Structures are given as structure tokens and as C-alpha cells.
Amino acid sequence: MKLSVVTTLYKSEIFLEEFISQILSAIIELGINDYELIFVNDGSPDNSLKYLLDQKKVISNIVVLDLSRNFGHHYAMQSGLEYAKGDFVFLIDNDLETSPYFLIDCFNKMNSNDQIDVVYGYQEKRGGGFFYRSAGKVFWWAINKFSDIRIPPNILTERLMRRDYLLSLLSLGDANLFLGGMMYWTGYNQVGLPVSKGLRKTKSTYTMHKRLDLMIQAVTSFSGKPLEYLFYLGLFITLMSILSIIYLFIKKIIYGNEIYLGWTSLVVINILILGIISTFLGLIGIYLFKVFKQVQNRPNVIIRKIYE
After folding, report:
1. Residue 128 neighbours by CB under 8 Å, 6+ apart
2. For burial by CB atoms within 10 Å, which of 38, 132, 146, 164 has the most?
3. Is 133 helix (H, G, I), strand (E, B) or coil?
4. For residue range 106-131, what is the model confidence (pLDDT) as tens digits?
5. What are phi and psi of 202, to 5 degrees?
6. What pLDDT band is residue 52 in, cutting at 50, 70 and 90?
7. CATH number of 3-223+299-307
């Protein structure tokens, strides 16, 4: 049995020493001798790459995929998963918010039932302040409201996967990545384990802007529901407009010159229509761009060098 541990690098230097120590300790405790530690350098601006190359002189199991630039967390994870050669693949962030010893829990759960294909981590209760927790709730509500598949809320990156499942996941070939959705669209028997996340030493690189982009990516990559909702909203607005015209026309007939249909009402209506049309076109544009990106058939990442 071979184990592949996959993680990505972006401003990760401060975590690497402790992360490597803990993940090696977990692997030793499991009695696994055949393993690889795959680090994907996603254009990290610090000395993460240099540190790992120095560590590789001592720990030969370390493999580093050095991407040509920053492509994004999900694309970097995908490249690491594509490279992994293990019968079991453990995906984890190295910021130590989730302990590398979670690997042991995953193996114990998977070994309890040979029908389990994936063991993933999730938060029973989100940490952070009120705004962060509220934003998280909105994020998962929106994804499950507008997506065609059900994604468990508060899932984490960390998961242990059997190779058959991983090959099916990688066969999807999406250019517009939202791995959280792809992992559940793939199916198979997946079981969640609650995880208590620790405190991060540094500020998260996942800004609110990135989280919003991720939500838009998630919804538009896995569902046509927003377009359906636009269609029905358009019908509703059309119907209300027709009814309003009929109402004003009847009122004008009854009250005659007492009813003034001035410029103010026309300007307000035009602004409302302009806003609605702009929103509709913007959403349609997002979908068209995703189609354009998919048919370009570019690789999701470019690997500058592999240090094996």
C-alpha cells in the first residue's frame, strides 16, 4: 500500500517545519513505509520552495511541483492530485488549522468499512467572528440553494481518498474548478468526520473577495438554476409591467387629466429596467465566459519543474 499526501504552498514557510514533523509522525504511527509528500508551489512569494528543497536532501519522500505562477488553490490541489501515485491519497492544507494527525482518524474510519471510498473533514461549528460565521452560512446556503448537487456545509480541504475514487474525480476535466462540488458530484460512498480547527498563526490568504469569487464559481460551475431564475423573474417583471400599464390606462380613462404620468415615473422605471438588464447580462456573461474557457482547452496549470 502506498500513501500520497498532497498539499499546496502559498506563504506557507512559517508552517512547514511543524507540518512535516506532524505528518511524518502520523504516517509512522500508521505503520506506512511507502509514501510520498507532494508539495505544490502555487507561486508562493516566500522561501517555501527553498526550505523544501533543503528538506528534500534529508527526506527523500518529498516531491515538489513548482508551478510557473500562482494559479489558485483549487488548481494547485488538482495538479498535486493528478501527480499522486498512491493507493490512498490524503489532501490537506499545511497551515495547521487542521492537525495532520487527522490522517490517523481518516484511516481508522476507512478501515472500519471497506465500502467507504472517501473520509472527509467538516466543522460542526464555524469559528471566527460574527461576520465571518454569517458569511460562511450565506456561502453554503447559496451553494446548495442554486446548485444541482447537495454539498455538506462547512466541509474542509482535508480528506482521505481511495485511488478508484480519485481517478473518477480527475476524469471530469473541468476547466472551471470548484473541487468541493466536483468531489460530491463524483459520487461514491463518502463519510464525514467532525474536526475542531485550531488557530492560524497568520492571517488567512482567503480574503472575503476570494470567498465571494469562490461562491460565484461554485454556483455557476454546477448549476443552471440562476439562468432559470432569471427567466422566471423576467416573466414576472413582464407580467407586472403589463398589469401596471393596464392599471394606469384604466385610471387615466376614469380620472382623465387628474392623473399625471410625468418624467419622474418614466426615469425611475427606466433605471429599474436598466439595472435588471445589466444584472441579467452580467450573469449570462459569466456563463458564456465559462464556456469560452472550457473550449479553449488550455491546461489548468503549467508546471515549471518537478523536484522528485
Report:
1. 136
2. 38
3. helix
4. 999 999 998 999 999 988 776 555 66
5. -125, 170
6. very high
7. 3.90.550.10
d(CA 23, CA 304): 26
DSSP assignment of 150-199, as one string? ---TTEEEEEEEEHHHHHHHHTT--SS--HHHHHHHS-S-EEEEE-----
Q: Tens digits of per-residue pLDDT, 132-167? A: 666 666 666 666 666 667 777 778 889 999 999 999
Residue 79's CB is within 10 A of a number of other CB atoms, namely: 23
> Residue 239, by phi and psi: left (phi above 0), alpha (psi -120 to 50) or beta?
alpha
The residues, any chain, with a CB within 8 Å of residue 208's CB and separated by 6 or more, are: 135
Query: 106: which 3 cell numbers?
Result: 481518516
Could you please report the per-residue DSSP string of 36-73? EEEEEE-S-SSSHHHHHHHHHTT-TTEEEEEESS---H
Please give the Cα distance from 25 to 8 (Å, whole number).
20
Query: Would you list the domain boundaries of the chain?
Result: 3-223+299-307, 225-296
With contact defined as beta carbons under 8 Å apart, do 222 and 176 qualify? no
- DSSP designation for 115: T
In terms of Cα–Cα distance, which of 36, 14, 16 is closest to 27? 36
Could you tell me which of 20, 1, 304, 4 has the C-alpha nearest to residue 170?
Answer: 4
Whether the Cβ atoms of residue 25 and residue 59 lie closer than 8 Å to each other: no
